[in-house]
Design a protein that fits this description.
Helix content is about 30%, strand content about 20%. By secondary structure, it is of the alpha/beta class. It has a single domain, classed as 3-Layer(aba) Sandwich (Rossmann fold). Strands 1-2-3-5-4-8-9-10-11 form a 9-stranded mixed sheet, with helices on both faces. A two-stranded antiparallel sheet has the order 6-7. The longest helix is centred in the middle third of the chain and has 25 residues, at about 140-165.
């Protein structure tokens, strides 16, 4: 059991989801998981009626706990013990969504610790990081205030996580939509805290120059050309501003008229993530 600065209890509830060679054990573990978090809340992406569900979750270790009042789902992806020193990837979900636990290990070069924070505010059956949508209020000052406030809160959470969990290098932050806005917010407001930012369909108006830290994270942004929710032009302007400030920042645009992670976007995202994980594993001279 551990405690955090605000005195809240952060007892870690853990369960290991691995292929034990027994469908009955896998089914029992999944049943326990649903009892802990409630049906329909944690999206495993699995068909629980599937008799081969134990294969779909092979190689994943999952735990849940709270840090400074924020619910965290932690997934160790790959062949590593839960307390091994690993690269950390922090993935922020979008508006109206909840964290999505990977179905399987997939093609990863190294094991890593995936941190999935839950936005504190409810929105329908999901959660939201900000009290307004990017489509409901285009006032940059209002939206920028909410982004800055949430980044400030989550930066304290990330610092505690990196102190509590054995972490290799600085974390990689990533996210979709509102999660992408938080990702770019970290790159601008907490550049020394993270090694890389990988936003998908994110938006941020950098209305003030950042401090001049010794280390700036790299930014690899991905966006759909016809995204109807988060306009491409504003994201393009933000990435140009980051580049002008000295960041290694790029934007890749994919043909899509949806506000969604298309198969092509997902493939490119995974390529970026694999490369970044390899760089973190290589040592501080690569990504910090």
């Amino acid at each position: 059991m551990s405690s955090n600065p605000n005195g809240t209890n952060s007892t870690r509830q853990s369960w290991v989801l691995r292929a034990f060679g027994s469908r009955h054990r896998a089914g029992l573990l999944l049943a326990c998981l649903l009892c802990l978090v409630g049906p329909g809340v944690l999206r495993l992406g699995l068909d629980l009626e599937n008799k081969r569900a134990d294969k779909a979750i092979e190689g994943l270790s999952v735990s849940e706990y709270h840090v400074q009042g924020i619910r965290i789902t932690e997934v160790v992806v790959g062949d590593a013990a839960p307390d091994a020193r690993l690269p950390m990837v922090i993935r922020f979900h979008g508006r109206g969504s909840v964290p999505n636990v990977p179905r399987s290990v997939g093609d990863v070069p190294v094991a890593y610790r995936l941190i999935l924070p839950w936005a504190p505010d409810r929105l329908g059956n999901g959660r939201t990081w900000f009290p307004l949508s990017v489509t409901a209020d285009r006032d940059r000052k209002v939206l920028g205030h909410h982004v800055e406030a949430r980044v400030d809160q989550m930066a304290a959470v990330v610092r505690e996580l990196t102190e509590d969990r054995p972490t290799l290098g600085r974390p990689i932050v990533t996210g979709f939509s509102q999660g992408g806005m938080l990702t770019l917010g970290f790159a601008r407001l907490e550049p020394e805290l993270v090694s890389a930012a990988l936003p998908i369909a994110g938006w941020l108006h950098p209305d003030a120059e950042p401090p001049e830290p010794a280390r700036l994270p790299i930014i690899r942004a991905i966006h759909g050309a016809g995204d109807p929710i988060v306009p491409l032009d504003e994201t393009r302007d933000a990435i140009r501003t980051f580049s002008r400030w000295g960041y290694d920042a790029t934007l890749e645009v994919f043909e899509s008229d949806e506000h969604a992670i298309t198969p092509a976007i997902r493939r490119r995202y995974e390529q970026h993530l694999r490369y970044l994980l390899e760089q973190v594993q290589s040592g501080p001279s690569s990504l910090g």
